[in-house]
């Protein structure tokens, strides 16, 4: 069965510092990979996704993630964070389930806390 | 505006009283799904649907039912709610491609409390 592991439950960082949120997944076949962001008291929004092609994908607000097939990882990075980036970030993988349908599994989340 | 609409936003109910949480999307998405979010556990998939009349179990389907009679609607039914179903529920929809879900649009969530 597929699984998604987010290695850090909380990441505190100072404003303008770089950050990396780590994500590893287990799957034996090709997958689609996603990062979602949840701001306090809100629903989830798609931040970026890897479907195929270039292994480096970017969002409009400066985040990027790199698909590494050999390490089964999809880490999220930003070179300089802002206070407004404080949120919970979820890594997810879409994969074919045992019955042929497509399941999407989420990690437990990483809470990014940006300090002034 | 493209969106997923869930109702109600908040619901407090008693053990055993049947309830339905509605979900509707206006983007003609094939794929719809329900998740519950609990602290420290992330989002866990309850049920999903790849098209009309096609539904399948996620990882935590016990105690829940769904139906997909129309493409836009995907209601979640709790026939006999119990306190362990107290949670934050999200409906989501997406296009479906060869490799799977193309990226979700989420509803605003339904906070359910079962007493």
Given helix and strand content, the structural type of chain B is mainly beta
The sequence of SSEs of chain A as H and E is EEEEEEEEEEEE
**What's the assembly state of these chains?**
heterodimer
Q: How would the global form of chain A be characterised?
A: globular
**Overall pLDDT metric of chain A:** 91
Q: What labels describe this entry?
A:
heterodimer, A: 116 residues, 4-stranded antiparallel β-sheet, B: 115 residues, mainly beta, 53% strand, globular
Would you summarize the structure shown here?
By secondary structure, chain A is an all-beta fold.
Describe the structure in your own words:
The complex is a heterodimer of chains A (116) and B (115). With 116 residues, chain A is mainly beta. Chain A contains no helices and twelve strands. Chain A has strands at residues 3-6, 10-14, 19-21, 23-26, 32-38, 44-50, 56-58, 64-68, 73-78, 87-96, 102-106, 110-115. The model of chain A has no long low-confidence stretch (mean pLDDT 91). Chain B has strands at residues 4-7, 10-13, 19-25, 31-38, 42-51, 54-57, 65-66, 76-78, 87-94, 96-97, 100-101, 105-106, 110-114. In chain B, strands 2, 4, 5, 6, 9, 12 and 13 form a seven-stranded mixed sheet that branches. A four-stranded antiparallel sheet of chain B has the order 1-3-8-7, with no helix packed on it. Chain B has a two-stranded antiparallel sheet with strand order 10-11. Chain B starts with a strand and ends with a strand. The mean pLDDT of chain B is 94. Classes of the chains: A mainly beta (116), B mainly beta (115). The interface between A and B is medium-sized, with 31 and 30 residues.
